[in-house]
């Protein structure tokens, strides 16, 4: 399925914090699947001074795959995801930006589907969704599924966002659209993704969706806890009252 | 209009209708014949919606795809990747994983 249209370039932003085990694998997978699709791309790694040596691994990978494919834009210390994306965009040379997690829960095989979807109706945003069609999750127990589905039901009811997966962070954006969205977002951290898609609706951007399978992280720490639920509810109420 | 205002307007509209009915300002005969039902209708509506919500959420929990295939494929690809990267000269820090 080689792609002959070379006018588009996709900048894949990979924010990393302590992903030393995941980073080589995710890069390998991206190179494999983007190579198959034939699309023009670059990978921008934004590491926030991970103490586990993620940056060293990234440098090795850059040697293997070349500086045109792997771009390193590290920062001194952990400054959060939102600013990591901003930092990455500044150095992105593509006209499209793809956001994904580096922890292997987002599989690069879906990127080509995102690209096809975007082209089909010239969408401003294409969002991966775990909640529709062949989408789904792996490694979640009943409680986590219940919280996820419950939170999603409540959000759909209150905000009618026009997208089925609000908290997912596997998305393709037109570069200028993403810049505008990030500028208009006030929240930080985990709920930032939800606000991005709500703002997209508010600003009348078109949103396409691709079902994705989400496999829980194999390596490294996960941090879904009570504080995340608290932040989620707070953000939901904030968006309910202001958008 | 924010979502909050939309909800408030709808709520006030429904409440007004209900209030006009129970205060018998309109449709007096109809109200007298169904007095208790109309009086309790807001509670009934909330209960019915609660049942609807619980059913939908539980249905979606039980039909949530488990993606065992995707997990298996990923595990296989991780092995492949580690092997291939080693031949390309990549040094894994945690070589035991
Ligand atoms: N540069 C940078 N990357 C971060 C920061 N926080 C998280 N990340 C990365 O952002 C991505 C998503 O973070 P995760 O820790 O997977 O967050 P999550 O998916 O909500 O939660 P779990 O996967 O359950 O741990 C991963 O690739 C992280 O390495 C940060 O402060 N700076
Ligand atoms: Mg994750």
Automatic annotation (TrEMBL), chain A:
Its EC number is 2.4.1.83. SUPFAM superfamilies: Nucleotide-diphospho-sugar transferases (SSF53448). It catalyses: a di-trans,poly-cis-dolichyl phosphate + GDP-alpha-D-mannose = a di-trans,poly-cis-dolichyl beta-D-mannosyl phosphate + GDP. One of its GO terms (cellular component) is endoplasmic reticulum membrane. Component of the dolichol-phosphate mannose (DPM) synthase complex. GO terms for molecular function: dolichyl-phosphate beta-D-mannosyltransferase activity; metal ion binding. Transfers mannose from GDP-mannose to dolichol monophosphate to form dolichol phosphate mannose (Dol-P-Man) which is the mannosyl donor in pathways leading to N-glycosylation, glycosyl phosphatidylinositol membrane anchoring, and O-mannosylation of proteins. InterPro entries: DPM1-like, Glyco_trans_2-like, Nucleotide-diphossugar_trans. One of its GO terms (biological process) is GPI anchor biosynthetic process. Belongs to the glycosyltransferase 2 family. Residues 11-181 form the Glycosyltransferase 2-like domain. Signal peptide: none annotated. Its main location: endoplasmic reticulum. This is Dolichol-phosphate mannosyltransferase subunit 1. It is found in: Endoplasmic reticulum. Its cofactor is Mn(2+); Ca(2+); Mg(2+). The lineage of its organism: Eukaryota, Metazoa, Ecdysozoa, Arthropoda, Hexapoda. It comes from Popillia japonica. Keywords: Endoplasmic reticulum, Glycosyltransferase, Magnesium, Manganese, Metal-binding, Transferase. Pathway: Protein modification; protein glycosylation. The keyword Transferase applies.
UniProtKB/TrEMBL annotation, chain B:
It comes from Popillia japonica. Signal peptide: none annotated. GO terms for molecular function: glycosyltransferase activity. Keywords: Endoplasmic reticulum, Glycosyltransferase, Membrane, Transferase, Transmembrane, Transmembrane helix. It holds the Pfam family DPM3. The lineage of its organism: Eukaryota, Metazoa, Ecdysozoa, Arthropoda, Hexapoda. It comes from the Eukaryota. Pathway: Protein modification; protein glycosylation. It is found in: Endoplasmic reticulum membrane. GO terms for biological process: GPI anchor biosynthetic process. This is Dolichol-phosphate mannosyltransferase subunit 3.
